[in-house]
Design brief:
Elements lengths: L11 E5 L2 H12 L2 E3 L9 E6 L3 E7 L36 H11 L1
Parallel strand pairs: 1-4
Antiparallel strand pairs: 2-3, 3-4
């Protein structure tokens, strides 16, 4: 089967109960830049860009949503990696894993 022509990835969206905290993480740890985002009636969004062209849209979680957030979310006290959801994730690569872990340890 042939793929549709002219299709490319535009962005990935994540919802969170604390998008400001999540945006700070993506900016300070991974180097994302905040870009202009539209205003929506009833919920907040923050749009980020990872140069040169990857975009991430953070969307304020609907408080009536019953689905759980990640174990590492703003509201979760669970820190056991065995409880991480496996289906929904974003993956980043680092050039030196040990250096990256040391960088993260210096922040706490």
């Amino acid at each position: 089967m042939a793929a549709a022509k002219g299709v490319c990835l535009s962005h990935i969206a994540r919802e969170s109960s604390d998008i400001k905290r999540l945006a700070t993480f993506y900016q300070q740890i991974l180097g994302f830049e905040q870009i202009e985002s539209p205003e929506f009636d009833g919920f907040e969004v923050i749009w980020l860009k990872f140069p040169p062209s990857f975009s991430l849209h953070l969307i304020q979680r609907n408080s009536s949503t019953k689905l759980p957030e990640s174990p590492y979310s703003a509201e979760s006290s669970v820190k056991d990696p065995n409880n991480l959801p496996r289906g929904h994730h974003i993956c980043y690569s680092v050039s030196n894993f040990d250096e990256f872990v040391q960088f993260l340890k210096k922040l706490v």
